[in-house]
Amino acid sequence: METASQQTSQELKPVDRLQQLLPDLFNPQPVVGEQFLRIQLTSDLIIAIPLSWVEETLLISPQWITSMPAMAPHVMGLMSSKGQVFWGVNLAQLLKLPIALEPSQTHEVVVIRTLPGTTTEDSANDVLFLGLVVPKILGSIRLPLETIVSPETEVDPNLQPYLSGQVVINGKTILVLSAEAIGNSQRPTLD
């Protein structure tokens, strides 16, 4: 013997039945916040970079990074993707954090766009890329901009020039880095 709810469910049109079974699909919640890419630098330090500055993420074998002589220690060398050649930098070393990249068969790389050059011979349409070699990419997250605040706890002074704020999610602090500041800091070194 069928119950009243089973009969009602069977008598519904397919669209109405789907709406009953999947109400969130038919009543979507508004998307709030900007997207950021989360990166785990250490077991205690998670950072986020605005996804609007991220061109792509890659797994690159160390053999595909061409080292160059007389470069800053954080500059790993040249790498390429999609017909573009760009510098690869060890983000932890750039931030002067005491973290060594573990020897690996592949490196995780976040390719960011940097601002076009400011000299007269540079075209306004030129886009430069920078590959940030990181220990672990965690994925994306949406953060409402009003939740990003000035750091409330002491932050390593080496991070200060690159920091645009912090956010606390489920009791964990995520430092938000400025991709623009990272790109600008590397222009004199890499031009």
TrEMBL record:
Q: Which domain of life is it from?
A: Bacteria
Q: Where does the record place the CheW-like domain?
A: 33-188
**Cleaved signal peptide residues:** none
Pfam families, per the entry: CheW (PF01584)
What SUPFAM superfamilies does the entry give? CheW-like
Protein name (database record): Chemotaxis protein CheW
Task: State the organism of origin.
Answer: Leptothoe kymatousa TAU-MAC 1615
